[in-house]
């Protein structure tokens, strides 16, 4: 798992210099295009398959806290794989096959590590009263609320049939350009705390490696595309960056 953690730092450096070619940064040269909704559904659902397969293979009866941890992961990924894609208004847009395959690889390893580590720890019921669980759960819930709300603001910007871009102004977009990404980072920080696991920490580091460069890229993109883009709006951290 330490090699996987080290690879996250390599990904961070790579993504700092090369924009991942999907969404507003989609471009040719990364393989055939897969319809957006299908790509999101396939690449995000493999986390659940890997997580539950590894958990079952551990041959351990899950404790109450382990069920809750798995439930939180499931809640996130059921939304991301089966609800979110069908709320997007990206008709006709595609994701390069290379991006989809890299995401499938990442999600498979991540799901497997989480399943194995959470079953290995299999926290006893007393974990429900541990401050790490309580604080982590609050952080996770706050991050998920921010992520879901901000994704919703973006998805409502387009009328049915539209695929262009507008300046988002509602919710936490008043302060930062990518509050959905900030919410996701907070969410997995909460998960790392509430599980107090190496797999949870590693997933948090990977999330930062993916999303911090993306937030920087989004900030540049908005300033290039919209001359009237709010000058005081930060990239990811209100008032700071
Ligand atoms: N944990 C991880 O490592 C990880 C990695 C990647 C993504 N995610 C999560 O997956 C979700 C989607 O990520 P993303 O990078 O695709 O987010 P995004 O670039 O903010 O796009 C989200 C959706 O909103 C649309 N959209 C974005 N900006 C818009 C604007 N100004 N006007 C109109 N529509 C707009 C996009 O359409 P287009 O597709 O047409 O641009 C897309 O359908 C986020 O919640 C993110 O946190 C997590």
Could you write a compact summary of the structure shown?
Helices cover 65% and strands 2% of the residues. It is mainly α and 241 residues long.
Helix % is 55-70%
Please state the CA-atom Rg, rounded to the nearest Å: 18 Å
| Order of secondary-structure elements | HEHHEHHHH
State which percent range the strand residues make up: under 5%
State the shape: globular
Largest sheet: 2 strands, antiparallel
The N- to C-terminal Cα distance equals: 31 Å
Keywords:
two-stranded antiparallel sheet; 241 residues; binds NADP nicotinamide-adenine-dinucleotide phosphate; 2% strand; 2 strands
Q: Can you describe this structure?
A:
- This protein has seven helices and two strands.
- With 241 residues, the chain is mostly helical.
- A two-stranded antiparallel ribbon has the order 1-2.
- Helix 2 (36-57) runs antiparallel to helix 3 and helix 5 (131-155) packs antiparallel against helix 6.
- The longest helix has 28 residues, at 198-225.
- The chain is globular.
- The structure holds NADP nicotinamide-adenine-dinucleotide phosphate.
- NADP nicotinamide-adenine-dinucleotide phosphate is lined by residues 23-24, 88, 90, 93, 147, 151, 154-155, 157-158, 163, 165-166, 168, 180-181, 184, 207, 210-211, 214.
Write the layout of secondary structure elements.
Blueprint: H1 2-17, E1 33-35, H2 36-57, H3 64-87, E2 94-96, H4 97-121, H5 131-155, H6 179-195, H7 198-225
Antiparallel strand pairs: 1-2
Helix pairs in contact: 1-7, 2-3, 2-4, 4-7, 5-6, 6-7
Bound molecules: NADP nicotinamide-adenine-dinucleotide phosphate (NAP).
